[in-house]
Amino acid sequence: MGSYLSTSKPEPVAESCSSHTKNPKPKKRKLNDFRLDETEFSDSISIVQEYPVEPGLKTTCKPSKSLKPELVTPCRKKMKSTSNYIYKTLFVHGENSDIKVRALNKDWPLHKLYLCQSPYFDSMFKGSKWKESNQTVIEIAIPDQNITVNALNIAFGSFYREEIELTPIEATNVLACASLFSLDGLITQCEAVMLENISAHTIVDYYDAANLYGVSKVSQRCLKWLCQNLMINEEIKLNSINLALFEKVISMNELMIIQVETDLYSLCKKWLYFNLIDSMYTQDTKIDSKSWQKIANEFFKNLLINKNKCLLEYDEFKKFICIFKKIRFQHIMTDLPSLRLLYSDRIVPVDWIEPLYAKNWFNLLFIDQDRLSGEFDLDLDEFESEALRFGRMLHDEQPATWRWVGFNYGVDLLVTHAARTLTLKRNTINMHSPYKGLLSNKTLLRIYYVIKLVELDPKGNELWSKTTELTCLDLNRSEEKYVISVETKVKYPILLNLFVSVHPFSHNYMYNNNNESIVEQI
Predict the structure, then answer these.
(1) φ/ψ (deg, to 5) at 45
(2) Chain-centre distance of CA 522, in angstroms?
(3) Contact 147, 77 (CB under 8 A)
(4) Can you tell me the distance from the alpha carbon of 492 to that of 197, in angstroms, rounded to the nearest whole number?
(5) Is the pTM of the predicted complex or chain greater than 0.70?
(6) Residue 99: Cβ-neighbour burial (10 angstroms; 0-12, 13-18, 19+)
(7) Staple 505 to which of 7, 189, 253, 386, CB 3.0 to 4.6 Å?
(8) Which of 521, 515, 502, 513 is nearest to 359 (CA)?
(9) Are the CB atoms for 171 and 163 separated by under 8 Å?
(10) What is the DSSP letter of 152?
(11) Pairing of strands 99-103, 137-139
(12) Rounded CA gap, 288 and 241, in Å?
């Protein structure tokens, strides 16, 4: 391991060789990296072809100018036996150890030469300011609770071999060790293992460890995974997601909404419930996922001592305001059962809801009466933070058509999936609709949309995705238009997310002469 080819000069070629032929001087190369360059290769062929055969010597091949190059090209072979010998002899058995490392009440007989691969130990042994530089036994304090004896064993063992065996559950512990000893190679190995094994069972631990030890690629992948799985994966333990992480995920534009905005409100309510009972009670409370809502409603009502207050108005629960602020209540209010739910739950203050009536009324009047309702423009950032959000799981290629609940200001949109394509259709008063008497009958309406499709593997990791640009679509009455397609290589089920708006998010008549909003914003 780590040995090099000899650099001594080669013996001179016999006199019978051609006088103009010279034996090339070999270069220093590691065994694992040995490969001839173009000059060496041509010279090697020349030597093989012209090297004399001693009298009486039997040979299986004759010198020939037609000798194939692959017969004289060195093959790269990994000396696994040498690596294993070094690992077992020096690390496992500790032979010829010149330093003993003590940590977490365990001793490891090691070798300074190998430990110096780590900047941590290199500066310790070579720096005069370190008292350990001349000691044969050094004791390392381990303040990080993520570091375990087994993780230390893996980290120290990595000094003696190129490959390590690492299980997904050990990755965060070994990452902690690698960060302590500044082992970049081991950090990279941990990163690779974590990226391959993100799932509902590892997501929170991986995210916390990645943030703590600066592995940004893993933390970003974890956030993406949560955005795509939070509303569909029932194996996620909501009480394991802390306040900061939950707020971050539900505030991201990449969050995949399944069904409608009311379902996001229900998810936040469920998260709040499981976090509160987890902090209030020490016993392991097990609740059927199907019956949690009834139990949670009773739980929240028992917390509301003052009938004139909502839950988030109590001082001890105000820290959760940031979670419910991320919900787009203006879209929940367009469905009567959902609006009733907001009032009956008494979680969100009434002051959050009432100002939105005026804003929604302005939107309705704009769509129905404003001559600019077919000509308005939208900004992408504003659209992503304000648009109406729908979602669905496409289980197979079978034709299907959906509409989502909510009045949506008199615009009834139908989404149809057939033959791996999606279309948007504007439903009018001549067709069946739960809002038949309230549908807008204007000839032309402008709609802005963004559609995202995602295919996930069994662990919830993205295999394929496709997203449209912010697209303007002008629809006449009962008109249907193509919006996106699914490639044949993609396998179902597929997540569908639709962002849509049929109105601008601010109107000039909503501001006074001083450019101040006349509608209180949440």
Answers:
(1) -65, -40
(2) 31
(3) no
(4) 22
(5) yes
(6) buried
(7) 386
(8) 521
(9) no
(10) H
(11) parallel
(12) 19
Residue type, 298: E
For residues 104 and 145, what is the distance between their CA atoms, to the nearest angstrom?
11
What is the separation of C-alpha 76 from the centre of its chain, rounded to a whole number of angstroms? 37
Residues 214-245 have pLDDT tens digits of: 999 999 999 999 999 999 998 999 999 999 99
Q: Is the peptide bond before 493 cis (omega within 30 degrees of 0)?
A: yes
Tokens of 494: 């597929």
> In this structure, are residues 23 and 10 in contact, taking their beta carbons and an 8 Å threshold?
yes
| Long-range contacts (CB closer than 8 Å, 24 or more residues apart) made by 464-473 | 464/489, 464/490, 470/378, 470/380, 470/383, 472/446, 472/447, 472/448, 473/424, 473/446, 473/447, 473/448, 473/449
Spatial distance between the Cα atoms of 24 and 396, rounded to a whole number of angstroms: 65
33 has a pLDDT exceeding 50 = no
Three-state secondary structure along 98-114?
CEEEEECCEEEEECHHH
Residue 359, CA distances (Å) to 251, 364, 501 in order: 22, 9, 14
Give per-residue pLDDT as tens, 302-341: 888 888 899 999 999 999 999 999 999 999 998 899 999 9
User: Per-residue pLDDT tens for 114-142?
Assistant: 999 998 888 888 866 666 667 888 899 99
Lowest average pLDDT, out of 31-35, 59-63, 101-105, 476-480, goes to 31-35
CA distance 20 to 189: 51
